[in-house]
């Protein structure tokens, strides 16, 4: 009987999954990956197996929440891999708080601690934990591992983690945590092979997806990042504004009389590329559009990225390399070109042909600071952690 392991990334409207298989006597390999999207609106399951064969099915409207989505995924998995043994399940969990500086095997005590962090990530943590609970119910006895988006950033200098508010507020957990840590950890893990000359140097990694952030790394460790207490800080994102004067938020409450729910929706769902362009949160719809608001949105995206790269270069006291990753970072040669051009003062000289071909190295040979495109793989990072903690690698 073949062994299987699962990776789950449960969000508010999507459930992403990977299935890993270990045929007897052989090594682990990716068997399938896919997602259920549109949970609560127009749910749809799409998946691709290792041979590249795609499957796609519309799901009924009864798939209204994460639990129902997991039920459907369980049925889909049974249909394909029924009767096989699941050796472990790895989960993405957005918040590990100040104490989890690495992944953790799920126990009732760990869950209790993670539930305490829900107020710090109300839009993500409940869904992540809901998936763990659902698996515990359906597959009791199958070990699970929680992998955190914050862990990679623990160990930063105190000034990088500080939110300079009064002590009692800080003592209640208000600090800069940083996110996208599984992506950054993956990039750090592949640099020794993919770009050995920079692996131990001062590197700024730009994770530019629908959420976007930067991480300043020295010797493969995070020393600062552009996301802070929540995933709202730093760069302009698909629907989030990035760094804002907090006085604006006060004004939304006090001046405009908006409710907390309204303000939350503005900050998480209606701002950023979508809010500025009034057209779309998707860079593909904006990057070549001949529309003044779309142009402003893209200009702002590039401007903020370049400004923050300058800030992190100051933190690192110089920079040796810039690495692009995630949806926009991996796929948009134009955005990479514009960010590199805006950062030319640092000593980045782009090599256009390599940029068009997605690198991996996209800077000129003599460029003082090198630039790279390295695809991220957060699911593989979760699978590696899960395998290691559960002793499945052998
Ligand atoms: P998530 O943060 O949801 O995991 P991804 O890292 O997959 O997101 O990035 C998704 C985003 O990447 C899309 O919203 C889209 O804006 C952007 N994207 C994907 N392909 C391209 C492309 N060819 N050109 C510009 N942007 C792209």
Keywords:
394 residues; alpha/beta; Nucleotidyltransferase, domain 5; 2 domains; 15 helices; 13 strands; 38% helix; binds adenosine-5'-diphosphate
Brief write-up:
The chain is an alpha/beta fold.
What does the largest sheet look like? Answer: 8 strands, mixed
CATH class of the largest domain: Alpha Beta
> What's the CATH topology name of the largest domain?
Nucleotidyltransferase, domain 5
Strand order, largest beta sheet: 5-4-3-2-1-6-8-7
Number of domains: 2
What is the typical, i.e. mean, pLDDT? 95
Please give the count of helices.
Answer: 15
The CATH architecture category of the largest domain equals: 2-Layer Sandwich
Describe, in plain words, how this protein is organized in 3D.
- With 394 residues, this protein is an alpha/beta fold.
- The protein has 2 domains: 146 residues, ATPase, nucleotide binding domain (Nucleotidyltransferase, domain 5, 2-Layer Sandwich); 182 residues, 2-Layer Sandwich (Nucleotidyltransferase, domain 5).
- It is 38% helix and 20% strand.
- It contains 15 helices and 13 strands.
- It has an 8-stranded mixed beta sheet with strand order 5-4-3-2-1-6-8-7, sandwiched between helices. Strands 11-10-9-12-13 form a 5-stranded mixed beta sheet, sandwiched between helices.
- A hairpin with a 6-residue loop joins strand 2 and strand 3.
- Adenosine-5'-diphosphate binds next to helix 10 and helix 12.
């Amino acid at each position: 009987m073949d062994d299987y392991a699962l990776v789950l990334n449960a969000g508010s409207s999507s459930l992403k999954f990977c299935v890993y298989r270990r045929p007897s006597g052989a090594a682990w390999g990716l068997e399938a990956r896919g997602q259920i999207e549109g949970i609560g609106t127009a749910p749809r399951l799409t998946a691709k197996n290792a041979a590249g064969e795609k499957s796609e099915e519309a799901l009924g409207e009864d798939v209204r929440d994460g639990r129902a989505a997991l039920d459907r995924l369980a049925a889909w998995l049974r249909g394909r891999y029924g009767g096989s043994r699941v050796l472990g399940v790895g989960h993405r969990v957005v918040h590990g708080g100040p104490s989890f500086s690495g992944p953790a095997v799920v126990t009732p005590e760990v869950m209790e601690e993670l539930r305490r962090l829900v107020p710090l990530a109300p839009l993500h943590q409940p869904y992540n934990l809901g998936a763990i609970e659902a698996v515990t119910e359906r597959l009791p006895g199958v070990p699970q591992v929680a992998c955190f988006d914050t862990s990679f950033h623990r160990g930063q200098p105190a000034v990088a983690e500080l939110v300079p508010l009064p002590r009692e507020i800080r003592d209640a957990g208000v600090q800069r945590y940083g996110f996208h840590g599984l992506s950054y950890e993956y990039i750090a893990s592949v640099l020794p092979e993919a770009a050995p000359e920079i692996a131990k140097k001062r590197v700024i990694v730009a994770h530019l997806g629908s959420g976007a952030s930067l991480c300043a790394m020295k010797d493969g460790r995070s020393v600062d990042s552009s996301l802070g207490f929540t995933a709202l800080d730093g760069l302009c994102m698909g629907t989030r504004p990035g760094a804002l004067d907090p006085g604006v938020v006060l004004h939304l409450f006090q001046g405009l009389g908006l409710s907390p729910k309204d303000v939350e929706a503005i900050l998480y769902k209606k701002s950023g590329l979508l809010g500025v362009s009034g057209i779309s949160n998707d860079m593909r719809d904006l990057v070549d559009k001949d529309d003044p608001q779309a142009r402003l949105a893209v200009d702002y995206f590039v401007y903020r990225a370049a400004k923050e790269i300058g800030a992190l270069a100051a933190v690192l006291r110089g920079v040796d390399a810039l690495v692009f990753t995630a949806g926009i970072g991996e796929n948009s040669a134009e955005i990479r070109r514009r960010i590199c051009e805006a950062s030319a003062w640092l000593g980045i000289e782009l090599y256009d042909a390599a940029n068009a071909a997605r690198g991996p190295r996209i800077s000129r040979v003599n460029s003082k600071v090198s630039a790279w495109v390295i695809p991220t793989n957060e699911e593989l990072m979760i699978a590696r952690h899960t395998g290691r903690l559960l002793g499945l690698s052998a």
